[in-house]
Amino acid sequence: MNRLSIKQLTIIPVIVVLVLLVFINYLMNKQLEDFAKSAHQHHLQTLLENASLFLSSDKYIPIQSIANKINHLHQITEQRYTLVDFSGKVLADSSVSQQDVATLENHSSRPEIKQALASQDGVGVAWRYSNTLKTNLLYSAKLITIDSQKYYLRIAMPQEMMFNSIKVYQTLFFVSAVVSVIIVLLVSWLIVQHINRRIKNDHYILEQRIKERTHEISSLNEISALLSSCNSFDELYSVLSQSCQNLFPEASGALAIYNSSREKLKTEATWGDSDNLHNFMFEPDECWGLKRGTSHIKHHNSIACSHNSSQAQFTNQLCIPLTARGETLGVLQFYSNQENYLDYHQVAVSTLSENLSLALAGLFLREELRNQALHDPLTGLFNRRYLEEAMLTEIKRSNRHGSPVALMMIDADHFKRYNDVHGHDAGDFVLQVLARCLNETVRSEDIICRYGGEEFVVLLPQATDIEAKEIAERMQQAIANSTLQFKDKLLPSFTLSIGVVMYPHDSEDAKKLIELADSAMYFAKNNGRNQVVCYADIRDKIQQQSLTEHIPVNG
């Protein structure tokens, strides 16, 4: 509703008041006239009663004396008195001289005289115009007896006297009406001003909300684009923290993601006053949102999630499960002390959670595909493709820091017989045992790759030849101590032949290092197997015997 229509609407009560005042004025005037008529009629009748008693108090009085008494009554009451005989002839009139009385016409046809003659009480009343006085009068006539003669005594009052008596009331009513209209106009004006202020305030609030919503939508679109463009989880966590801090300045929050075993969730990102939650871990059963599979908001007296016990200083808490492709990935958490803040922004938070779920699902899928592309499915170790990338990275790091890099080529001795005698499943089992032993003996920074078949390569950054040889011997010892219990039978043990090369001492080319390590490993196999051979120790022998061109032994 605009301002113009509101102003027009305020005219309605004024019109209603005016109509009511006109109607009430009509009713009041009618009532006042009726009341005045009745009161004045009663007054005239009283005067007639008193006058009749006054006139009939004496006996045998002449007409002149009666005329004098009538004039005397006129002087006392200021009313017109007329005495008419039974035939209608005027005998005396207080407003006409006695000489002119004879000229007055017969009054027998006057309404008040006729009514007095016809009524039982001998009283007649009439409202009519007087030709003698040239004005409207109220006439009241009464049949009286003087000296056993019947006469009509009539009294007349100007209607102006009656109307003058009610003018005071009409004036009071008019003043009241004017005051009422002024009050209605003033109240209407105040109402209009109040409504206009409310509308202006509502418009301002609506404009602010539209601006906020527009900013939210724009920000959410930008955040969605940024999240979908992230290439790593760390990048996504950074974008989320900064975006939530800007988009929801009155709220703190955190993002928790399931760990690899999906037994617990770990807080990976925080913003606002939630830094104490960083790296915090909790179980899924501690979150009502995860248990219910939908958003859970906690207000003052509602149930809070137990994993939020450290955030008890916030009266409002919101947990939103992050779900994509039918799988729950984590939970998005918001905290605020501002009343209804989370409720007001819940739509924006839900939209953000949906975009975040899709971005997380994309990163998880990308990581899964990358793991499949860079890992060997049988042993779980890195594959040959990853080795090539890792060697280039470690060689660059070695060049920057001047540190050595060791590389091992490992082969399981007589592995072929496991496949031939015990089957390929047994051979796969042996390779898995070998991969586990390698993982248990290398350092955390070392990189193990399955190169092909039963051959494995281990890349050892910042390791000397002595350290590399010690690690290789630990590998051999671990294999020797392992028990190959496959299904219901015990498989025979096996040994390892290991060749070791050093960067940059043996070669500065990654591909050449692989070839040299392979040559050192075959040298070990051709010279009794189950041994560790450093290429630097046999360089001269290999060159003399041209072992790089010979046909390697089987197994």
TrEMBL record:
Annotated transmembrane regions: 6-28, 171-192
Keywords from the named record: Membrane, Transmembrane, Transmembrane helix
Alphabetized Pfam families for the sequence: GGDEF
GO terms of molecular function: diguanylate cyclase activity
All copies of domain GGDEF, residue ranges: 403-537
Catalytic activity, reaction form: 2 GTP = 3',3'-c-di-GMP + 2 diphosphate
First-tier enzyme category under EC: transferase
Cofactor: Mg(2+)
InterPro entries documented for this protein: Diguanylate_Cyclase (IPR050469), GAF-like_dom_sf (IPR029016), GGDEF_dom (IPR000160), Nucleotide_cyclase (IPR029787), Rev_trsase/Diguanyl_cyclase (IPR043128)
Domain of life where this protein originates: Bacteria
The enzyme's E.C. designation: 2.7.7.65
Name this protein carries in UniProt: diguanylate cyclase
Annotated organism of origin: Shewanella gaetbuli
